[in-house]
From TrEMBL, chain A:
Organism: Marinobacter algicola DG893
Source organism, top-level taxon: Bacteria
Keyword annotations from UniProtKB, A to Z: 4Fe-4S, Heme, Iron, Iron-sulfur, Metal-binding, Oxidoreductase
Residues of the Nitrite/sulphite reductase 4Fe-4S domain: 119-275, 409-548
Gene Ontology molecular-function annotations: 4 iron, 4 sulfur cluster binding; heme binding; metal ion binding; oxidoreductase activity
All copies of domain Nitrite/Sulfite reductase ferredoxin-like, residue ranges: 53-111, 346-397
InterPro entries: NIR_SIR_4Fe-4S, NiRdtase/SiRdtase_haem-b_fer, Nit/Sulf_reduc_fer-like_dom_sf, NO2/SO3_Rdtase_4Fe4S_dom, NO2/SO3_Rdtase_4Fe4S_sf
Record has 4Fe-4S as a keyword: yes
Protein name per its UniProtKB record: Sulfite reductase, beta subunit (Hemoprotein)
TrEMBL record, chain B:
Highest taxon in the source lineage: Bacteria
Name of the featured protein: Oxidoreductase probably involved in sulfite reduction
InterPro entries xref list: UCP030820
Amino acid sequence: MYVYDEHDRQMAAERVAQFRDQTERALAGELSEDEFLPLRLQNGLYVQRLAPMLRIAVPYGMLRSAQLRRLARITRDYDKGYAHFTTRQNVQLNWPEIEDVPDILAELAEVEMHANQTSGNCIRNTTTDQFSGVQADEITDPRPYCEIIRQWSTFHPEFAFLPRKFKVAVNASEHTDRAAIQVHDIGLQMMRNDKGELGFRVHVGGGLGRTPMVGPVIRDFLPELDLLTYLEAVLRVYNRYGRRDNKFKARIKILVKALTPEGFAAKVEEEWSHIKDSPTRLTQEAIEQFKGYFTEPDYEQVPDVKDVLATQRFENREFDQWIGHNVDTHKNPGYAIVTLTMKKTGTPPGDVSDRQLEQIADLADQYSFGEVRVTHQQNVVLADVRKDQLFELWQAITPMDFATANLNTLTDVICCPGGDYCALANAKSIPVAESIQRQFDDMDYLYDIGNIDLNISGCMNACGHHHVGNIGVLGVDKKGQEFYQISLGGSSHHDAAIGKILGPSFAREDMPEVMQKIINVYVDNRTEEEPFLDTYRRIGIEPFKERVYA
Amino acid sequence: MPDVITSDGSIRQDDWVVVPRPADGESLDIPEQPALIPADLWLAGKEHFEDRDDIGVWLDSHDEPETLAGVVNELPVIAVNFPKFSDGRGYSIARLLRERLNYQNELRAVGDVLLDQLQFMKRCGFDTYVLRADKDINKAARCLNFFTQGYQAATDTDEPLFRRRAS
Ligand code: HEM
Ligand code: SF4
């Protein structure tokens, strides 16, 4: 994992000093609300309904145990003793005091963390696949490139006041896309061209929110050394020509649509032709240096435990289910990837207490080389667990409630904070998630209906990514009453698609029953082994409509 | 006489005034003193100003600096207007003037110029700044230098951190 050198440390310290100065000037009335706004947003501080919220960056989801412990301490000392994992691999505190934020940032800087550019109209935290570096089907480890992008985008002098926020995601797996790159402002798919050279396919203009869009490809192959100059060209075109007159039309997707993907690509190529060979062009040496931070841990020779595991699974049904759902194949045959689920029914998805953060830190130290990854499904991954320790780990995490074996199933809900916490909400979202989790609490039934992405947002800002859920739920306001609109058929993976609206919205108390009807239609129509999304694609939305509105 | 901040944080006074764009049908009123006029008007009537060495231009945030290609260095001063500090187009304009059009003379930030943006402006090639009148000019030197280095190459340096680290 990346480790700061003296340059990073110096800039981090200077940033904290700068924000302390800015906060003092704001509190002394030297900066108006309006002037302080972008400064605090770019330091993660967002003021909303009940209290300020501080969004802390977790670059591409990686955390060390010492950082988890520091986060735990911060939630205790400055907040109410819990934090929230977000759908962009970040961590949020919901109740900090504004005056304390510079101190919190200083505490974070001590463990090489920050809240830079986690809000505001700037380049945000770059996200990637939580299985980077440990999965078998990867073109190459994307994290060095994410770190390269992080450094390039941090305090970029030209792009601190873009028309709107800007998010980049990188994916390197050939067969899956856990980073949802096609719904980002820039989505980079790592690939090799026919000469075997490493590079990226570049998607631009994807996004959710009010105008959901799947990002078109604007360059089929970008050589790796050209990564930063090309990003700079895209950002410059956007900075100059993106709309600034209407906040709802300011995202790059609107510009790409207005110019057409071809027209936009041509403008980028023109700009790029001037800066391709500028000093911003990466060098092989620099890339190697970044790669040096993401080398493999010291894997040990793990004895073959196939038989032992088989016996343990046979004798213990819950362990068997957990292995089947929450454990993934590692590229090293002696190891496994374990996802700790933060989705116990009754707690808001993604919420963790200070104690749990420390438990996760201990687990990381004991079982996974002291590191974890935060996923955009709001779970936590131990990426390097010895197979001969799986049973012991499972026993350890079961009482901690991290072993709910529902990963990727209907009850592994992605859900925004909604009306319980968020000023912009039309409706609450957490109680809907909970009522659906209760409706589908029978594990055998849950496994039988298979992998289904359920995403819930409390308003069209789409923090819960409802458009790309196989089943999406959106909170809407009908004459002051909270209602929920359902869409079907979305996907955030390689086959990315925006879901289609089923029809008129429902009251909250009807949601479990409506969800049950949708699942029933699927079960009645599926062919053997056919997942929900495929059945939906085959039979279309009509049968669902007929049943639900009958 | 406006107070002008320079990139090293010192303060000086000079006489350059920004001449606003005349309303439709009105003609441009050129003062005696050094004047910055809308760039397109200068381009349209460049020959009228040949006897004066104290005429510069200003670009608004939606203007295209490329229109000045080839003639930038005839100008002693180019100003870029920030209509609102949150309008970031001026940063790209500055870099294009410096890095694409090879502009060598004074580049001035005018308009809604506040303290916390000064260092970004400096990195993009500005060398003088007219701070909004209600801001404390004595804090400018500090705000120009919050950071001792940056990650990227920009107008101020050809050495992004990844190149400095490698050497
Ligand atoms: C609690 C207070 C929160 C507020 C007030 C809030 C507000 C917003 C707003 C205004 C947007 C704007 C969308 C746009 O630019 O069109 C947004 C987007 C987003 N938020 Fe939140 N949010 C909150 C919490 C969260 C949380 C907890 C998560 C993670 C679970 C989250 C994840 C996101 C994501 C991923 C987007 C981007 C969706 C897109 O791609 O356009 N937000 N949020
Ligand atoms: S989707 Fe809406 S309700 Fe939910 S967190 Fe985002 S802004 Fe708030």
